[in-house]
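Section 5: illustrative case.
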């Protein structure tokens, strides 16, 4: 029997390729299609009832207002194979619930990149040239009483400005490329790992080369603070995840220049609306352009951000070109048909449902394995161990950073110190000095550990100073390590504590591993154990909404 597929919004086959594909698959008897036929969001009860009838294998759904959660997945039961959302973002989908049930997820990130980047650039221009305010003045008939004067409706120029892009995936990069034509002079970008440069394999549009061709300096911001401080235009293009929710909040906005503009083409909740409103009203920020707002689509004419003259609000039209929507519908339908096994269809984009904790562990595992091997089998060559330790530390760096945001180490530390979670504002000089002292102690401790290792090595070498053993790059196995080599490194069985995420194995005698995280902030002792296929759940002692969640991978 042909697989049953549910479609939650009509897709006009004359304009939307996905609609035509689905119609044909239905006519050819390749699927049984159940459609929601009204041109408005699917009624949740209708959908649940339809799913409870049983046998549904695929669901083509939309982003707006269609939550894919436990209740819906339970209603669908075990026949469900694929959720295909006609959107790039999938923050409406409970990915853990899908993973638990073995349901696959498809999304449509590529088809809308250009359209969304256009709107990002448009909002930069609209906000900085006060287009919303200007159009409103004309519509309200105020032009005749608004004689020209030198500063009437003046904004800030893009020429020579610094653009900040938060979330430097395809949309972020293409938004920047659009803006290069306006003679901006510098771009700072940030992914979920501030300070980490764009992986060239993720430079989808030759962005780095094009920027330098335009004479535009482009580099990762060292921190979110630097991003906030330096940019004249900040465009948010990141996915909405627990760690990006509210990332543009009061403390971020407080660091921005009063002449700067914020543009949000990501998701409403990435920006704290109240904090933004306060910054705009108090003229701590020059203006904002929002394609997305928390609470959409229920944003009435009386919404304070709509009423705020320096803010221009669009009704989430980032992907609203016929071409983008047609491509999105095509990709969503392809994902669905491939997911239910209709011959001749391939996934356009499957979202990997590997959860973030696991990804991090997988990244660091090979290096840890290598380190253990060195320590176990090669105790005599302390120089090699020291080098492997260094290498491990290098590998661990993103892990440390992500772990910090994963568990909100800083917040936890602040709570231990009795500080407000919105910490930076609350750190007094004593706190800063204490933090600095901790960081210095950690660094000294580290240096001591290095010295101890060298001493131990000297002893084991019958008194011959190991420093005398010349470091020969030719002999250094880590010189050659690249991603491929790393992936192929034999990984010894990891000791149970490591699988249980209990930290690194004990260091060899006389050597300390750098367990102190940078800035002296230790990883809190793990409060949980998990099996190989399970995921660690962050400790919850601070209550769910206080604890930051896993970092996104942009
Ligand atoms: O916002 C639009 C999308 O995620 O497709």
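Designed sequence:
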């Amino acid at each position: 029997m042909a697989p049953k597929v549910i479609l939650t919004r009509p897709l006009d086959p004359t304009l939307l390729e996905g609609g035509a594909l689905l119609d044909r698959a239905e006519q050819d008897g390749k699927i049984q299609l159940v459609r929601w036929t009204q041109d408005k969001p699917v009624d949740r009860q209708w959908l649940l009832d339809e799913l409870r009838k049983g046998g549904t294998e695929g669901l083509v759904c939309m982003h707006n207002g269609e939550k894919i959660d436990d209740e819906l997945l339970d209603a669908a039961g075990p026949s469900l194979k694929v959720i295909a959302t006609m959107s790039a973002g999938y923050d409406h989908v409970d990915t853990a619930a899908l993973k638990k049930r073995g349901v696959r997820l498809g999304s449509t990130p590529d088809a809308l990149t250009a359209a969304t980047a256009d709107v990002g650039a448009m909002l930069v221009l609209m906000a900085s040239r006060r287009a919303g305010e200007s159009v409103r003045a004309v519509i309200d008939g105020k032009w005749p009483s608004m004689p020209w004067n030198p500063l009437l409706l003046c904004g800030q120029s893009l020429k020579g400005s610094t653009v900040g892009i938060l979330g430097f995936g395809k949309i972020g990069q293409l938004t920047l490329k659009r803006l290069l034509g306006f003679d901006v002079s510098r771009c700072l970008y940030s992914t979920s790992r501030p300070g980490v440069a764009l992986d060239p394999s993720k430079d989808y549009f030759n962005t780095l080369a094009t920027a330098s061709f335009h004479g535009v300096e482009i580099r990762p911001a060292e921190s979110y603070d630097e991003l906030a401080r330096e940019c004249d235009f900040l465009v948010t293009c990141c996915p909405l995840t627990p760690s990006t929710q509210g990332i543009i909040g009061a403390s971020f906005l407080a660091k921005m220049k009063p002449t700067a503009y914020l543009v949000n083409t990501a998701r409403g909740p990435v920006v704290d609306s109240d904090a933004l409103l306060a910054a705009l009203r108090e003229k701590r920020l020059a203006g904002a352009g929002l394609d997305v707002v928390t609470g959409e689509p229920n944003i009435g004419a009386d919404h304070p951000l709509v009423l705020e003259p320096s803010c221009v609000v669009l009704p989430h039209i980032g992907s609203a070109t016929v071409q983008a929507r047609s491509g999105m519908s095509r990709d969503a339908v392809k994902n669905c048909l491939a997911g239910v096994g209709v011959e001749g269809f391939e996934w356009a984009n499957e979202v990997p449902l590997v959860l973030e904790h696991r990804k991090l562990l997988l990244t660091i595992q090979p290096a840890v394995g290598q380190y253990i091997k060195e320590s176990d089998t090669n105790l005599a060559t302390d120089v090699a161990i020291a080098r492997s330790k260094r290498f491990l530390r290098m590998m661990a760096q993103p892990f440390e950073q992500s772990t910090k945001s994963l568990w909100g180490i800083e917040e936890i530390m602040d709570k231990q110190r009795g500080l407000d979670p919105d910490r930076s504002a609350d750190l007094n000089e004593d706190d800063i000095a204490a933090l600095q002292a901790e960081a210095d102690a950690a660094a000294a401790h580290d240096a001591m550990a290095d010295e101890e290792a060298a001493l131990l090595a000297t002893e084991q070498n019958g008194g011959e100073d190991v420093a005398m053993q010349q470091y020969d790059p030719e002999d250094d196995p880590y010189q050659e390590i690249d991603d491929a080599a790393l992936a192929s490194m034999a990984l010894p069985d990891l000791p149970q504590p490591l699988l249980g995420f209990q930290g690194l194995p004990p260091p060899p005698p006389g050597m300390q591993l750098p367990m102190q995280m940078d800035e002296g902030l230790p990883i809190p002792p793990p409060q949980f154990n998990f099996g190989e296929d399970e995921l660690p759940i962050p400790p919850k002692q601070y209550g769910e909404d206080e604890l930051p969640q896993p970092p996104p991978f942009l």
